[in-house]
């Protein structure tokens, strides 16, 4: 795999505690597939992605094989939701207990599907498709076995009864989508799943809400190096996590923010990447997972790129903060040492010293960007002292290799609004300008309008959450228990 001279960072493939997968990538496995239309940063993204396919449920080898009549009972049970004593809620509860039954009757699943319809039995169909997707052998015939199953699943995603799924069995449906994404990755058909899952998210997701299907969607986008669809959902800030089933799937939540951070790294949006890695390490958890450790490594590196120091994180305020920091100290020492470097030369020496570690973690490309960021900060310091400097003088002071590298860095900094300057290529001079000289009235107005719109959006969302809480049953019950039901103003926020 290439080192990634751009912004893309890499993480080693995590062990089993990150995600349980029967088809996960082997340790340190990489994907050298590149996309001619993507940048060098994006081209190496696939090497960092954590395998996202759900493991195949294994039946007890000592158990007695389930007979065909058991599958008949399954069909009878999942088609009884119209009866008075067997609601769709009961159907969902029953379906969650049928993994072994379906795996012991794989040969009859297509026959079972022929007896069901998407209008009334979408949850059962999702469960059967999950069993079929999870049981595809590695040597399965791609033409006669795998492709028909992929098309069958895509057809179901298009026609499913989403009100029923959303109300009683979103966890069942999400697991199927997760396994579907894993199969597409294994078969190198990731592009086939992006649009179907994108449409599903548009149907099910409320603004600002996180669904586990979105994690599977990001996984496909990363593996296919198609980041534009991913940014459509990542650019919407998460303010609510939906509980899709009996329990909350914390690994899927952590992976959403981890995958999202990697997507932003590929697009060189270090600020958003740093934010998502920060959320991943700040999420309350009873144990430190490999996902959090890998996110913390990238949080360190993006903090250095952005600020030159470790960004203060909410994790320090959490009750388990000391435990977290102690747990990750030994595995992140080679990263924390970056902050002790006083010059780009020292940082390059540290990079060479720990190159094996960074390669193993597949973060070497991001470490190289840390070196570049130190060069840029040194150039920013010059703007506070000088009004005019030659390219050769800047090259000598900052200790760059040549004037071409200096000019390239200056151009990038000007385009990213990191400095205000004008380069005279003919004379080889650089003129540093004040912000007022560099920006026009239209640019300032556009920036101000964007900030105002963002503030209005945040205020509107907070108002919606406030109204939702005040009108909830739990809130009203709490008011009554506290004896303040008649004094709602006591619960109002005051500035």
Structural features, described:
It is built from 25 helices and 5 strands. By secondary structure, it is mostly helical. The strands form 2 sheets. A 3-stranded antiparallel β-sheet has the order 3-5-4. The protein has a two-stranded parallel sheet with strand order 1-2. Helix 9 (170-186) packs antiparallel against helix 10 (191-204) and helix 10 (191-204) runs antiparallel to helix 11.
Shape: elongated
Instruction: Please describe the biggest sheet, giving its number of strands, its sense, and whether it closes into a barrel.
Output: 3 strands, antiparallel
Oligomer designation: single chain
* Helix/strand order: HHHHHHHHHHEHHEHHHHHHHHEHHEEHHH
Number of helical elements: 25
Poorly predicted sequence stretches spanning 5 or more consecutive residues: 1-68, 488-495
What fraction strand? under 5%
Distance from first to last alpha carbon: 54 Å
Binned, the helix content reads 55-70%
The count of DSSP E runs of length 2 or more, i.e. the number of strands, is 5
Give Rg in angstroms.
27 Å
**Structural class from helices and strands?**
mainly alpha
Global mean pLDDT: 80
Q: What strand line-up does the widest sheet have?
A: 3-5-4
Break the fold down into its secondary structure elements and pairings.
Blueprint: H1 40-43, H2 68-78, H3 88-95, H4 99-103, H5 109-114, H6 118-134, H7 142-159, H8 162-168, H9 170-186, H10 191-204, E1 209-210, H11 212-224, H12 228-234, E2 240-241, H13 250-266, H14 270-282, H15 290-307, H16 321-329, H17 333-336, H18 344-353, H19 355-361, H20 364-383, E3 388-390, H21 391-398, H22 403-415, E4 421-424, E5 429-432, H23 435-438, H24 441-470, H25 473-482
Parallel strand pairs: 1-2
Antiparallel strand pairs: 3-5, 4-5
Helix pairs in contact: 6-7, 6-9, 7-10, 9-10, 9-11, 10-11, 11-12, 11-13, 13-14, 13-15, 14-15, 15-20, 18-20, 21-22
